[in-house]
Specification:
Distance between the termini: 26 Å
Strand content: 15-25%
Structural class: alpha+beta
Helix content: 40-55%
Strand order of the largest sheet: 5-4-1-2-3-6-7
Order of helices and strands: HHHEEEHEEEEHH
Shape: globular
Number of strands: 7
Number of helices: 6
Length: about 210
């Protein structure tokens, strides 16, 4: 992703807190503590993501009181989103790919919300960032949808809207419509391939 000012501020703040807590730490030790905190945040995000997937895979009601406190705010936010938007789940963790431009990925949800088919990405980020639209644009402009159950590929589903769902620790959520920036994604993808030729060679060897 592109540099995020909020992320840079957060890292600086955490580094300052670590240094103030223990002034004997040198620079490398301070940054090691920041990386550990960042890793914990990533683990929370991946766990919340897995929990929302499980919720959408079952019709059972979730008692928020049974959810561990570290995750309960995020899950409350997700359940509130479902209660307010009343989405119909068309696909959960859908695999899509583009054979022409040679990329593939797994989108969080394809939903029916009202009369629109929505491609939704679920995040536990603090804020919405414009570059989040790039990944969604790539998914929307995929050529094929791969059904994990039947193992059959079919033409990509027509998507009416791209959206980011931000789940917050305090139990609130925000829903952001995202623009289709497919051309910008392709430019970024070309840069990525240029900077990571070894990964592209590995991909070719697996074809």
């Amino acid at each position: 992703g592109w540099p995020k000012p909020a992320l840079q501020y957060w890292m600086g703040r955490e580094a300052a807190k670590a240094a103030l807590h223990d002034p004997t730490l040198d620079e490398s030790e301070v940054m090691a503590k920041v990386r550990a905190i960042s890793g914990d945040k990533a683990k929370i995000g991946s766990t919340v993501h897995a929990m929302t997937e499980a919720i959408d895979n079952t019709a059972e009601q979730i008692d928020i009181k049974t959810v561990a406190p570290i995750y309960s705010g995020y899950i409350k936010a997700f359940l509130d989103f479902k209660g307010q938007f009343k989405p119909k789940i068309l696909h959960n963790e859908a695999t899509v790919y583009n054979a022409t431009f040679k990329y593939a990925g797994t989108c969080d949800r394809i939903l029916q919300i009202g009369d629109k088919t929505v491609l939704l990405d679920i995040k536990t980020s603090k804020a919405y960032y414009p570059d989040m639209a790039l990944q969604l644009s790539a998914y929307r402009n995929s050529e094929f949808f791969y059904d994990k159950d039947t193992k059959v590929s079919t033409p990509m589903i027509k998507i009416d809207e791209l959206a980011i769902l931000l789940l917050a620790e305090d139990g609130t959520f925000s829903y952001h419509q995202a623009p289709d920036k497919f051309k910008l994604f392709l430019y970024a993808f070309e840069i990525y391939k240029y900077l990571n030729p070894e990964k592209m060679e590995l991909l070719k060897s697996n074809e």
